[in-house]
Amino acid sequence: MNMAKYLYYIAIISTKKGKYMLEINQKAPEFCLPNQDDIEICLRDLSGKWIVLYFYPKDNTPGCTVEACEFTSALPEFEDLNAVILGISPDSSKKHRNFIEKKGLQITLLADEDKKVLESYEVWQLKKMYGREYMGVVRSTFIISPNQDIKAVWKKVKVKGHVEAVKEKLKELQAEL
Q: What is the Cα–Cα distance from 97 to 36, expressed in whole angstroms?
């Protein structure tokens, strides 16, 4: 086995054991995805802004609705911090549009139906519920700097108090500059 293949297998094994390859100060993986209006949004187009990138399992479910509503409520404060909020799930643009209209959301939701971005951010993982194993989104949030470096990561997010924690961390990161 050559060294590149060996390292690839080690990376996969490490990720499957719950060790993540993405690290603080690493460049955020590039993406281009359609938003709720089928307009393509790319990470590279947001250079110069802070990005709160959150991944969630499914539109119109209890936890995902609370998280989206809380990010919407806090949107003016994030905008004052020069931050954009982007939510990503495997739902379609149409489902995102319906979710936004139904709940009065003001944040941007991106559709990753083929799950490539979910995989590149290591949030598409094996999950267990009621003894059943399945692949799904691990609720996670990343703060990405204006230089597109990962500056903070939350994995297996609990929704209660999360938006406030993200906002405080963003303020802390900005104060360090």
A: 5
